[in-house]
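WARN  no MSA supplied for this record, continuing single-sequence
INFO  ligand: zinc ion
INFO  echoing inputs
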Amino acid sequence: METKIAFTAFETIDAEALVLIAFEQTAQSHPWIAELVTSGEFTGKFLDSVVLHHPTGIGAKRLVAIGGGKADRFTPSEMRQLAGAVVRSLKTKKMRRVALVLSEAFQYPEYVAAAVGGAILGDWEPDLHKSKKESTGGIDEFTVLCPGGVTELADAFTRGQVVATAQNFARELSNEPPNLLTPTVLARRAAQMAAETGLSCDILDQDRMRQLGMGSLLGVAQGSAEPPFLIVLRYAPPVPLPGVHLALVGKAVTFDTGGISIKPSEKMDLMKFDMCGGAAVLGAMQAIASLKPGIAITAYIPTVENMPGSKAQRPGDIVTSLSGKTIEILNTDAEGRLIMADAITYAKRQGATHLIDASTLTGAIVVALGAINSGVFSNHELFQRRLLDSAKNQGEKMWAMPMDEEYKESLKSASADLPNIGSRGGGSITAAKFIEEFAEETPWIHLDIAGTAWIEEAKPYLAKGPTGVALRTFVHLAQSWE
Ligand code: BES
Ligand code: ZN
Ligand code: ZN
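INFO  complex generated
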């Protein structure tokens, strides 16, 4: 699907479907829609729609009215969902060319970016390995039509395109099956993306990590025949803001069986999603490389497969992390925090001033927040506030979780500095507390995306499967840093 922005009058647009947004309980500016409201066929309820064939006075073959809901609640987030829903409902109906009209009230950068972004996100399907594509007969051309709009909106349009395309790249990686997307393949895909976008790339293999002393990460990898990697991608602006070096750290377990503390077989297939944090970070770097924010940003993506092979680590093992802290492995299924610990220490040693990690870390966060909000954990209130502001701006729901000192009390091991699990109660918090031990005093935010990285049911605006969550927040935070 090709996306375009245009500024002409909508009457003259030649398309199979011209889409107009209409709101509940407001005077309709178009006579056709006013008539539909009077007749009771259409109310303007969010995402309700009605199609008119051969409407008089316009060039398009059909007019689609889609409900925007309550006008005063229509934020860019609603625009993103609406555009996605338009694409998903029209693409199965042989509408090759579709134009979505943004009236003057919505001709602002955030709405334009959201409209094109939502369309691109809505178009994605998890059908790469299907012989018959879901999207066949799909939309060829999607136009965001801003009649009389200023051409400066084109920059916002491009930004929306770049970010959503990066998000679909992350979703595509996340949806790959674990036999085809091993740590080796992920590292190769990252290197390829870096070469295409001009990022510098350094991939640490097992030998390098052994020399450095990443015992925590390597312990997780040792049960698998697939070798682990630490993927490092660097973005440096020509004149970077002094004193800031943001590290984005993404958990990329290409498959999590649980290891010796093996998971039940029911729904274990979902555990291919355990690299969604890493994929979101990779996608964010792709967008960052093209949007060129003013701060230095480095991505660290530890990637392993958690398997119960004959060399696998056992409950009871003690490993020495890169930080020097020793860890008693009490449950091999709590592997995410083990690989993140070494990646975070490495990022700090490379000069990170701010750390953000995205990880499908705990089942406990799914219990706490469901599939609606990602959990946010931090040791730095102001930094956390900035991230939450970016999340809100980008329509990614996130909820700050408590980090009281008391939650650390259960992280006690008789024989090592730390155990790799704490109390089950507040399990997502005790997991965050473990990671905090490695972030130490560096401003740090941990996002637990175990509940939000994957949707089990399709939404009107998004296919079921990987969501690419956190990516937009990362890109916005990077771009708005001052
Ligand atoms: N990748 C999982 C987290 C997960 C579990 C995500 C279920 C989505 C659904 C993680 O590595 C894990 O297994 N965590 C354990 C930790 C426990 C052993 C302390 C969990 O949450 O059960
Ligand atoms: Zn696990
Ligand atoms: Zn895991």
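The chain has two domains: 2-128+140-147, 163-480.
INFO  checksum written, moving to next record
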